[in-house]
Amino acid sequence: MLIRKANRADSSIVWEIRNLAITAQCSKHYPFDLIMKWTSGEPPEYFSDVVDDGFWVAEIDHEIVGTGKVNLQTGKVDAVFVHPQRVRFGIGAKIIKHLEHIAIDVGLIELNLESTLNAAPFYRSCGFQGIEIAKYNSPRGIELDCILMSKKLL
């Protein structure tokens, strides 16, 4: 598996993996209508810029199978998604480890994230801590319960 910096050309597959992962993984924790609103429609116009600026993608045999990003100013991890047909193979954990190394390289000492309810056990297995439930407000105007989590890097 290769983890590489994403670019604009990856935007459509990044969006597709996001939607597939949300639909497959979140359905037992969030209402169907919320998931449909969260994943419906086309990506916003600025999405290609966001992907080009901060995303990383995991590839197996030149096929993108996972995504993730970390804000190198705030340490916020976001958009860690794995294609539903590729879950449980360690791809997500490798993406997290890659993002941690990038964060350490720029001097960050802590990462933070807003986990969906279904993903919290995964993040805990990667060393993140947190149990506080908060409201996540997505750029698409959706509000959903999430768990605030953090991890010390040093």
Q: Main attributes?
A:
Aminopeptidase; four-stranded antiparallel β-sheet
Description:
- This protein is an alpha+beta fold and 154 residues long.
- It has a domain at 2-108: Gcn5-related N-acetyltransferase (GNAT) (Aminopeptidase).
- It is built from five helices and seven strands.
- α1 (11-25) packs antiparallel against α2.
- The two termini are 26 Å apart.
- The model has no long low-confidence stretch (mean pLDDT 96).
A few lines on this structure:
Residues 1-154 form the N-acetyltransferase domain. With 154 residues, the chain is an alpha+beta fold.
- CATH topological fold name of the domain at 2-108: Aminopeptidase
* Spatial strand sequence of the major β-sheet: 1-2-3-4
What is the name of the CATH class of the domain at 2-108?
Answer: Alpha Beta
Beta-strand content estimate? 25-35%
Inertia-based shape: globular
